[in-house]
Design brief:
The complex is a heterodimer of chains A (153) and B (404). With 153 residues, chain A is an alpha+beta fold. Helix content of chain A is 40%, strand content 18%. Chain A has one domain: Sufe protein. Chain: A. Chain A contains six helices and four strands; from the N terminus they run H-E-E-E-H-H-H-H-E-H. Chain A has a three-stranded antiparallel sheet with strand order 1-2-3. Chain B has 404 residues and is an alpha/beta fold. The chains are: A alpha+beta (153), B alpha/beta (404). At the A-B interface, strand 1, strand 2, strand 3, helix 2 and strand 4 of A face helix 9, helix 11, helix 13 and strand 14 of B. Strand 4 of chain A pairs antiparallel with strand 14 of chain B.
Chain lengths: 153, 404
Amino acid sequence: MAYSDKLLDHYENPRNVGSLDKNDPDVGTGLVGAPACGDVMKLQIRVSDDGVIEDAKFKTFGCGSAIASSSLVTEWVKGKTVDEALTIKNTDVANELNLPPVKIHCSVLAEDAIKAAVADWQQKHGMARTVKPDTVQGDRAALLERGVLKSGI
Amino acid sequence: MKIPIYMDYHATTPVDRRVLEAMLPYFCDDYGNAASKSHAFGWRAEEAVEAAREEVAKLIGASAKEIVWTSGATESDNLAVKGVAQFYQSKGKHLVTCKTEHKAVLDSMHALERQGFEVTFLDVEKDGRLDPGRLEAALRKDTTLVSIMHANNETGAVHPIEEIGRVTRAAGVLFHCDAVQGVGKIPFDVEKANVDLASLSAHKMYGPKGMGALYVRRKPRVRLVAQMDGGGHERGFRSGTLNVPGIVGFGKAAELARLEGATEAERVLALRERLRKGLQAGLDLLTVNGSLAHRVPGNLNVSFAYVEGEALMMAIKDVAVSSGSACTSASLEPSYVLRAMGITEDLAHSSIRFGLGRFTTAEEVDHVVRLVVEKVGKLREMSPLYEMVKEGVDLSQIEWANPH
């Protein structure tokens, strides 16, 4: 499959790989996708008191397009306010990386990851979620209690 | 060492230079049509075609008259499956195959289903092999054909074809074997395995592309409905002017396989084991897919847990391999072969097929081991799943939303 130079650059030199402290109240974590689908993205943002995203980190299990999409959105959200970050659409990601049609779902996942991270941050701050939470379903409280899920994941 | 490194010998093999040399005269000098019976150009072409037929037959324990030239294994599979099913349909309309067969067999079967045939698609065991008992239980009075491959193209797992042949022979059912991945690499004998029809491909054994053969047993005689009508070439089984240079190349490739196959298999097996042990020494959470004991020498199919296959292929872009990951296909479904073996979807997404062969060197294997170990390590550092597992999270307990 022929990939764009931008995509290859993000894949080969991914920006902002890593993790932030998920227990930090200023950190929002989004985990989207599913291993069975071949794509799981974890996006974390650290938000300042005035609502600006100061830092973003990602880890992704997925193909080159998924890795590049998540790398790209970490760059894009940094310096933006939470509300601005939520305006990033999957089509923006797909256009920037020139994703082939079969890889559009990677950009959808990247958009979902932003929303999930923001939702987690909003919840930590007692705000009403303006976007949907991450896509890990089930009884989170019970999973946390059993130690299956760590808080923030 | 030359970069890029080719480790995709199941997809195709390079033409052996000796094969090319044998073919060359048949393009510009001895260019006759093998069906021209009235002049020397035709006679010379026919002579070369018949010598090649002898060689291909000899390699699989058949007689020359039982070899039908085709354009490749896809055509051979179509001709065998559809040709037999249609010819014997007054006797019965039930066919049996297994879920891990090549698409050329599976889709031929699906085409027959649309024509009113009934097909049983058998499950395989966890090691990718068919249990002959499962086959025996599936046979019915109206079963006319069983189609089971010799070695699987993804996992290299070798089916117990001699036992399968005993079952089909005892039941009086014809046995077609897609022998593409086994012939020339491991012993394959149509008599020992009671095979009635066998598909062969030249380009999987260092011959040219676009060249195949179908073995059709004469004693007891197997009959077919031709799928290609025309001038009645190949005893009416397959019309069309013969690809003389391709046939000559196939013959030479078969001769080389017969003379050198056993030594080569030993060498390739040693390299495969060097690769496997090197990867296992350097990485944890690695699983070999398919039987290790019953496997073609050049195949290693491995899942690197928590790393997606296409991402790994991009990371080792100077090494040509293939993956069971959905991301390498347009379908977004991971390998149906691995899924049929009960391998979970996430591990199917993480699989890489290494195919070693005649021109693979130890130096290349060592380079690939180093590269894969490094890149899998890097991708796992980037993998949220690996991080979660290392933190003690049981991934199977998580209910992931939006599956697909």
